Amino acid sequence: MGLPGKRTRFILPGQATTPQDAPEDPCKGSGFKKPARCNGFRELVEDGGASMNRPDRDSDGGSVDNSIPRVTLVLFDIWDRDLERTLSGTLQQFFFSIGERIPSTPQVSVQNRPCPSINPFEENIGRFCKLLDDAPGNIRIGVIDVGLWTFSPPPRFIFGQGCRYGSAVLSTYRFRRETQSRKLLHLRLSREVIKILGLACNLDACEDPQCMLTYHRAVEDLDRNRYICRHCRDQFIASLGELFNNFQQR
Ligand SMILES: [Zn+2]
Q1: Any domain includes 5
Q2: Cα angle vertex 127, ends 120, 217, to 5°?
């Protein structure tokens, strides 16, 4: 089933890099993706990814079952199968953990798309949100390796951002550059993807510093998270009930 070896721990997006800290080219040095389409500062026309989409598959590589709710991970130029398994496995583990309290356990599927060429120091969240609108699933989580810049003070690369209800984007950019070991990188991202799921579900930042839904400024903040608190868990269940019951299968 591709689950990570340990119990799911859940986390959130962060902030904190100042413009001075920002590397010159957020597309360089990715160990996770094919760099071919990541054109750094060039502003190019994107094709929306449609021409290179692979058929959807579930996280184990099987076919997609359209009779049950579906959560889709949309990987933009990310070809790291280990990371794919970590993210999808974490989501599956979380849904299993709240099993009977949601209408049905969703299928977690994966879709690969090319990353559009962007100017990394512009706010590009809207472009990724728009691409997610075309993706299938009751919930859609985009994952990108490029930096996700915001001008909101202080201007910085952020860990992720919500789009419309039911979709959000996770950027691995700062995690890859600010985490030394691959093992820790996967642990942090397994927590972060839950935080991003929370953004897709419109959950507010939690005040409990040990809860994965709390606010994070640095990647190290994720290391302090130990659980999803009861309040956030209840909020998750309420939102997932809406998203799985009231939204048509896309
Ligand atoms: Zn909480």
Answers
A1: no
A2: 55
pTM of the entire predicted model: 0.77
Domain extent for 63? 19-245
Q: How far is the CA of 192 from the centre of ligand 1 (A)?
A: 14
Structural domain contains residue 10: no
Q: Which residues surround ligand 1, an ion (CB under 5 A)?
A: 206, 208, 211, 213, 229, 232
| pLDDT band with cut points at 50, 70 and 90 for residue 34 | very low
Instruction: Give the residue among 94, 79, 98, 58 at the shortest CA–CA distance from 193.
Output: 94
Q: How many domains does the chain have?
A: 1
Q: Which residues lie closer than 8 Å to 94 by C-beta, 6 or more apart?
A: 8, 10, 194, 197, 228
171 burial (CB, 10 Å; 0-12 / 13-18 / 19+) is: buried
Q: Find tokens 């299928």 and name the residue.
A: 107
> Can you give the CATH number for the domain in which 113 is found?
3.40.390.10
Determine the length of the chain.
Answer: 250
- Provide the sign of the torsion angle of the four alpha carbons 104, 168, 192, 177, taken in this order: positive
Cα–Cα distance measured from residue 171 to residue 122, given in angstroms and rounded to the nearest whole number: 14
From the centroid of its chain, how far is CA 182?
A: 18
pLDDT averaged over every residue in the chain = 80
How far is the centre of ligand 1, averaged over its atoms, from the C-alpha of 14 (Å)?
15
Instruction: Write down the pLDDT at residue 67.
Output: 78
- Residue 42 scores a pLDDT above 50: no
Is 73 a member of any domain?
yes
- Please name the amino acid found at residue 228: I
For residue 227, how far is its CA from the centre of ligand 1 (angstroms)? Answer: 8
Does 4 reside within a domain? no
